[in-house]
Amino acid sequence: MSLPRKGVPDLAKAITTIEWEQPSAQEQTVRRLAKVADEAADAADALTAFIRWIQLMHEKGWLQAMIAILEQGEDIMKILVRQANEPEYATGLKNLIGLTALLGQVDVEMLRSVAVAAREAKTRVTSGQIQPVAGIFPLLAALRDPAVGTGLAWMLEVLKSLGQAVAQPDPTHAPAPSLVTSAT
Question: Is there a domain that residue 38 lies in?
């Protein structure tokens, strides 16, 4: 076994710790700012739109209102809870929830077709294309039109459903059989 010579490091000795040089606080700040600048450059369009949105909210006074609400949030929440406990407000909230649920059941395409039909009929009546029905015989003649028969059958079904809903306010009742039979 040879002994290490004086002044020569022992190369066979194991390294037990590694000391990494820690960046200074200023270097860490520079790195963070560079990262933010890179992210901002990548999202320049989104940031521009966001800044425009904030500016518009400030111009309209909404930003100040939101700040005031956030600053007074606990007091506002207490007032809202107190008001929600009042019977008329509680009923209104229940109605709003029910209306929201009802909107989920609306057949938008059917509603759109009814609105379009009403608009077209109004246009034809106001332009003079359709004359008012004067008497029973023109009414009976109009019933021969298949489109009139279909529309009338639909309206009778709506009236029947409304009548049942008024007579039986329980929404879980089974629907009654149709008044209008199909000619198939």
Answer: yes
